[in-house]
Amino acid sequence: FHALFMLQVENVKLLDRYTNRKAANGTLYLTATHLIYVEASAEIRKETWILHHHIATVEKLPLTTAGYPLLIHCKNFHVAHFVIGQERDSQEVYTSLLKLSQPVKPEELYAFSYNPKMSKENREIGWKLIDLKVDYQRLGIPNDYWEITDVNKDYEVILAQKIVVPRAASKTVVLGSSKFRSRGRIPVLSYLYKENNAAICRCSQPLSGFSARCLEDEQMLQAIREANPGSPFMYVVDTRPKLNAMANRAAGKGYENEDNYENIRFKFIGIENIHVMRNSLQKLLEVCEMKSPSMSDFLTGLENSGWLRHIKAVMDAGVFLAKAVKDEKASVLVHCSDGWDRTAQVCSLASLLLDPFYRTFKGFMILIEKEWVAMGHKFSHRCGHLDGDPKEVSPVFTQFIECVWQLLQQFPCAFEFNERFLLEIHDHVYSCQFGNFLGTCHKEREDLKICEKTHSLWPFLLQKKQEFRNPLYRGFTAYKELQPNTLPFSFQFWCGMYNRFDKGMHPKQRVLDHLLSCMSQKLKLEDNASELENKLPFLDGALPAEACSFSKVGRAASKTPMLNTPQDYEGEPPAALSNGASAPDTDGMDRDHPENLSPHRGLHNLNDVLDAEAKDLKPRHH
Amino acid sequence: MLRSSQPLTGPNRKRCREDEMLLGTLLDEGERGFIIDTRSAQAAKQARMTGGGTEPKSSYPQWRRLHRPLERGRPLQESFIKLVEACNDTSINMDRWLSRLESCRWLSHVKAALSTACLAAQCLDREEAKVLVHGAEGTDTTLLVTALAQVILDPSCRTLTGFQGLLEREWIEGGHPFHLRCARSAYSHARLKQEAPLFLLFLDCVWQLSRQFPFSLEFSERLLLTLFDNAYASAYGTFLCNNEKERRVGCLCKVKENTHSLWAWLNQPGEKKKYLNPLYSHNALVIWPSVEPQSIQLWQGLFFRWIRSSQYLDEAWAEIQRLVEGN
């Protein structure tokens, strides 16, 4: 631990919205990968870890009586407000953090130095854990209408190696269509609804301008439509606002003309662009950071940010796709401009709504690998992994994760995983600790030798599956399609994400932990019971004392009654009332250290994990 | 913790030796007490013009007065009506929804009520000082504060029977005019002068507590919804009339002789289990809620009760029940 420090600074305070007045002194350490703040008093030792890659901005605030403040904003919405005693120290920390948080070359990213003790074979097995071909097989592909092809290997297309296209589309058609689509992103299959053969396909905008046509592209769409003989028409959905799409025509791009494409129904679903979303999030975070806002301030700020409006727009689009496929039995072709942002959100959401498989651990991982990684979402740019163009940064994946969370709220029993799973994935999309989200496309990942030099996130998560389980999951067959209510009031503010580190704001008692421990206790008791049953035939007389000492599972697991303290209920407390003395968190309420992406956690033998996983993830039948 | 109505100081600053002595005897030599007045300082001052007022510092030297204005009466009823209108508008877009949620101010009232109750609780628990709560009449916001403070402070008020006892004591016997306040609810065009959803506001605050402390209340949301229903229309006599006098003497119906008690029905073993919280675990400590806006949510189970299916949430509760019982 000690040998790894680059910098160690004493006399540092960490302020939060509650303990402004008497924050304790602690020590700040900088390692090659993390900032670690340690507050050690007689009773407790509290560590706060921040991964350098998670740092979005560092600001020097004006000098106060307490010292030299530094305000750190993180990409996972952690806001850390340090006050450093000495100016020189403060300056040194500031410049170090600026440098450490903005790597220039991909090779500087954590994933290339992250080294858990793991054999080469295990690391490779880890990368093979998610195989998209397995999902295509599950969907029944290849079949009479659809085939898997690597035809795009020949042209520098940003699409995945293997894509699914209609069998009826000849190589000429595919090639021709690729010349008529922005960045060559031809229509490919995203999801096939086996029950009625309707398909969700995705692509980028056509280079139609005001009047250009392309026979092969029209034939491509025809092939897609005819791959679903159950429907006379198909939808083409442009997820941009109509105005933006029209503006693109002036640049030689645009959208499909219904007159030119046989039997298509064209529809705009206005989801705003990446710049609008970036600004929206910025405003939302400002609201979250307000100190002691009134209810009005908060709701007005929430409204002005537009954030929930955008979340609803994405959800509405996903719902539209799912309805078209399930109820109208019609195939849908989705695009935005480039087909790697809004398109990814909407297609993955629709798949989730339609197919319970994607609501399992394995399924969700496959969904992300398929719709986001393989289909070329530019994680590196959107998440600002490297020092680059700030205008490319946008919370596109964050919005998708939030839509999933909104679904978790409406359908608490429908997902195999819980909120923590979503937060952890989100953390690691930004952490660059694993190679899955590095780079901007398949080719770049090959060049960087991701599979040889880095680790995959998925086995790491599966190993911690017990933390991420949803105790209320009713199994694979309990719910088929999900039909969420999309009225405005159904969308809640996700406190656990945007005010995640403001512990005081969250419910003080965690039902999730209690239920998870009920589940594991129950399993333990069942094991004990069967163990004892096995002993019975060999016993003579009374049972051993252990048999009687079980506590009922039903008894609530909370051991120590939970101490909590009143917050400051006034804006300006009268002098007579002091704020409650803050007692330390006595029980393990702080179970997850979200800041703690420590590399020190060892990994178990990967084979064991995979075996267990193979057993567990067979769809549960009730 | 004590409650009362406003002192009748009037425009001429009348004094009352007995009242001063009464409050004086409550405090030891050098001990300090707090008066929480649920009106704004200005409103309290203006009350003098109509014969009411506040306790002057000079006459009640050991008592420190704090003003924490809580909405009541017509404005609170309007807030409720506007909220329900917004909830029922299915053509609304997100911005309009948030705007109406903000402008109806219902959640602001919830925040204010919780904050004031916590203040009263803090006086008792942290300062170990006595507290007197009053507004104008002592039958609305006063009872809201004292009842809520007890749920926060006292684990026995969080049990099913303890909570019923609390309601009997603070709301029913305390003289909240249910008949006037819970007349037509949010849909009536009548706009009755005396109607105001104080009791609903109390139930909403209790629901907020149950959300923040899911293990600490012995009763479930279902109980709160049932109480809400029965306050407006009931097969039982528990919430009838406006005060004890009316229930015994004034009312033609003689409530205790001629009606059944809601509590008797609720407490039957067959009924009771429907109202229990499967996660309940006795918590001996004070439960301090967070009153940050992010911590306060709209009570969907009440306001969207008839608008959106609760099927999936009901299934979730059934799962929780199953898990906790170890089936």
UniProtKB/TrEMBL annotation, chain A:
Biased composition (Basic and acidic residues) is annotated at 612-622
An example GO BP is:
phosphatidylinositol dephosphorylation
Q: Identify which residues the record assigns to the active site.
A: 336
Residue intervals of the Myotubularin phosphatase domain: 126-498
One GO CC annotation: cytoplasm
Which keywords does this Swiss-Prot/TrEMBL entry list?
Hydrolase, Lipid metabolism
Recorded GO MF terms: phosphatidylinositol-3,5-bisphosphate phosphatase activity; phosphatidylinositol-3-phosphate phosphatase activity
Q: Which residue ranges does the record annotate as region Disordered?
A: 559-622
Please give the superkingdom of this protein's source: Eukaryota
The family classification in the record reads: Belongs to the protein-tyrosine phosphatase family. Non-receptor class myotubularin subfamily.
From the Swiss-Prot or TrEMBL record, give the protein name.
MTMR8 protein
Q: Which organism is it from?
A: Baryphthengus martii (Rufous motmot)
UniProtKB/TrEMBL annotation, chain B:
GO annotation terms (biological process)? negative regulation of autophagy; phosphatidylinositol dephosphorylation
A Pfam cross-reference name: Myotub-related
Q: Name one GO cellular component term.
A: cytoplasm
Q: Where's the Myotubularin phosphatase domain?
A: 1-303
- Gene Ontology terms, MF aspect: protein phosphatase binding
Question: Can you tell me which family this protein belongs to?
Answer: Belongs to the protein-tyrosine phosphatase family. Non-receptor class myotubularin subfamily.
Q: What is this protein called?
A: MTMR9 protein
